[in-house]
Specification:
The complex is a heterodimer of chains A (280) and B (293). With 280 residues, chain A is mostly helical. Chain A has helices spanning 2-5, 11-36, 40-49, 51-59, 64-85, 90-111, 117-123, 132-151, 153-161, 163-166, 173-195, 197-214, 218-243, 247-273. Chain B has helices at 2-14, 34-44, 67-75, 91-99, 128-145, 151-172, 191-197, 217-230, 244-252, 277-292, and strands at residues 28-31, 49-52, 78-81, 104-106, 115-116, 119-120, 182-185, 200-204, 234-238, 258-262. In chain B, helix 5 runs antiparallel to helix 6 (151-172) and helix 6 (151-172) packs parallel to helix 10 (277-292). At the A-B interface, helix 2, helix 6, helix 7, helix 13 and helix 14 of A face helix 1, helix 3, helix 4 and strand 6 of B.
Chain lengths: 280, 293
């Protein structure tokens, strides 16, 4: 038991646990929609696509959060444009914008005349360096994400399962879609600056995908994903402490490993459950 | 239920290889880079535990710490950091630790750093004179931690060794004729070396101060032109970075250009001769003398 509690004697570990858990909750809520609607690639692209906005914010000295949101808006508008004006699948637009934005980001970084530690610190944000101020931001993000998720739950649900009929039922699917994209952007941008890009991606897709393996109803999926996310953060911190592995990266890998463990157990149980009916 | 079993199996699997953090009640100093680790060892002697965060051969610019290492930072009597943005990916962690009360000493800002762009060049350790001063700074800080031990005479002895090293480097570099004292570096890391030993840095492969940027094709074309015009015979790459771009620049140049891997961001492996700061400085000087002499 001491093995599990010893790592949390340090203030930085406690802050990492709280900050990581808040990010895990916010990302579980938006990530559930990301997994249900097959938008993982968009999530991945958004995390990397905000890099030029951040680089620009640092070069021109304005708030990095604003830079990140600006870049996300440009990116989503670009993806939307490709989607509307061509016959390509959405995935092509995402691919184009992903590479385009990341490329612009690297160009801007390479133009930075000298050491810009702050830029790298943001891009490689480390959950082990989370401050009380960061936690305040994460609380705000988690609360807003939770509130919007509850308020617009029915809109998002209809959008996910029956987009065509949504309009007939009096819902406004395009508005709901915009709200959902905004929420996903908020979840990602709000948390990656403090916990790092890798961990955001791990928590966005890993826990909701694992939850989707074991439960069906969306609200239960969200709660399960949040629990898995928080547990992954705690397990990642314990592993990083005892086995000397890079903190954020370990926490990002845990939910992915958990996904495959759950998948294997689920398959084994299903096979064990119907040996009699299996025809030889 | 499945969820809990899954999580438990994960924890059980990882519970086997537990090893404790050193629990002796003596003094512990944490150093970020292998170079600073060697400097600190020379000041504090064998009785003090010195932990180094960034492993040999790794690039200090993008190294991320483990939770165990952050715990060491928090517990240490003293944390010696290069600073001036060198440990880019550790900045968050170090700042948070400092706010938590960790005793963090940034040495580079105290050593009259050379201005570059809007900041300062962090690669101070390639100057033995500045490192001698750094040894004194570490000794002063250690005296604040534990005044019962005479740190300053150790630091002074090491400073003399570094001064001898400086003169050795000067004599090694006499092999380089005055008109070939021009350097092309992989990234902007040789500013101090150049300033002290009378070299001129005429170009770098990677733009900006960090190793994280990437060059434009016009910058590389310009660099090829500079190398041809100046008749430069070697590109000074580094052991912590892949030198593929440096190699392709070398291949592009019409005359024979060697790519030499200097020890810049990290000491060499044990037994390489560059496994101490002094060994590293001499090894670099010899490689430069051989390549340009």
């Amino acid at each position: 038991m001491e093995w599990l509690t010893e790592p949390f004697e340090f203030a930085f570990q406690q802050r990492a646990l709280i900050g990581g858990s808040l990010a895990a909750i916010a990302l579980a809520l938006v990530g559930t929609w990301v997994v249900i609607r097959g938008m993982s690639f968009l999530g991945d692209a958004l995390v990397h696509g905000v890099v030029p906005g951040i680089a620009l914010a640092i070069l021109l000295d304005f708030n990095v959060m604003i830079g990140a949101v600006l870049a996300a808006v440009v990116m989503l508008a670009g993806i939307n444009l490709v989607h509307r004006q061509t016959t390509f699948s959405e995935d092509t637009g995402i691919g184009l914008l992903f590479v385009g934005m990341l490329g612009v980001g690297v160009i801007l970084i390479s133009r930075t005349p000298s050491y810009s530690g702050s830029l790298t610190a943001i891009l490689f944000g480390d959950v082990l360096g989370v401050t009380i101020g960061d936690i305040r931001v994460l609380v705000l993000v988690a609360v807003v994400v939770l509130a919007v998720s509850v308020l617009l739950y029915r809109h998002f649900l209809v959008l996910a399962f029956n987009e065509q009929k949504a309009q007939l039922f009096g819902f406004r699917p395009r508005l709901a879609q915009a709200a959902l994209l905004g929420l996903i952007t908020l979840g990602i941008v709000g948390s990656f600056q403090t916990v790092g890009t890798l961990l955001v991606l791990g928590l966005l897709v890993g826990p909701p995908a694992t939850a989707a393996l074991i439960v069906r109803r969306v609200p239960i999926m969200m709660v399960t994903a949040a629990v898995i996310g928080v547990m992954s953060v705690a397990a990642g911190l314990i592993i990083s402490y005892h086995f000397d592995t890079a903190g954020s990266a370990t926490m990002a890998v845990v939910p992915i490993v958990l996904f495959f463990v759950v998948l294997t157990i689920k398959n084994a149980k299903e096979r064990a459950g119907r040996p009699a009916t299996a025809p030889g | 239920m499945i969820l809990i079993i899954g999580a438990m199996s994960l924890l059980v699997l990882t519970a086997c290889g537990d090893d404790e953090i050193a629990t002796d009640h003596g003094l512990t100093v944490v150093a970020t880079t292998t170079v600073i680790g060697d400097l600190v060892r020379n000041v504090v002697g064998p009785d003090v535990t010195v932990e180094v965060l960034v492993p040999i051969g790794a690039d200090p610019h993008d190294y991320q710490a483990s939770s165990r290492q952050v715990a060491q930072i928090n517990k240490a009597s003293l944390v010696v950091v290069n600073g001036l943005g060198l440990e880019e990916a550790l900045i968050d962690v170090l700042h948070a630790a400092e706010r938590d009360g960790a005793n963090v000493l940034e040495i580079a800002p105290l050593l009259e750093p050379i201005p570059v762009g809007s900041g300062f060049d962090p690669h101070v350790w390639l100057d033995p004179g500045r490192m001698a001063e750094a040894a004194r700074v570490v000794a002063e800080e250690m005296a604040r931690v534990d005044a019962s031990i005479d740190w300053s005479s150790r630091a002074a002895a090491y400073a003399i060794e570094l001064d001898i090293t400086h003169r050795e480097i000067e004599s090694i570099l006499q092999a380089v004729p005055q008109d070939t004292k021009k350097l092309v570096a992989n990234h902007d890391s040789l500013g101090y070396f150049a300033a002290i030993y009378g070299f001129e840095v005429v170009g770098t492969v990677i733009p900006g101060g960090s190793t994280l940027g990437s060059p434009s094709s016009s910058e590389l074309a310009k660099l090829v032109g500079v190398i041809e015009e100046e008749g430069i015979r070697a590109i000074l790459a580094e052991t912590t970075e892949a030198s593929v771009v440096a190699a392709s620049v070398a291949a592009e140049v019409s005359h024979q250009v060697e790519v030499v891997d200097l020890y810049t961001g990290s000491l060499g492996e044990p037994g390489s001769g560059a496994d101490t700061l002094i060994g590293m400085l001499l090894a670099n000087a010899e490689m430069i003398a051989r390549a340009l002499g």
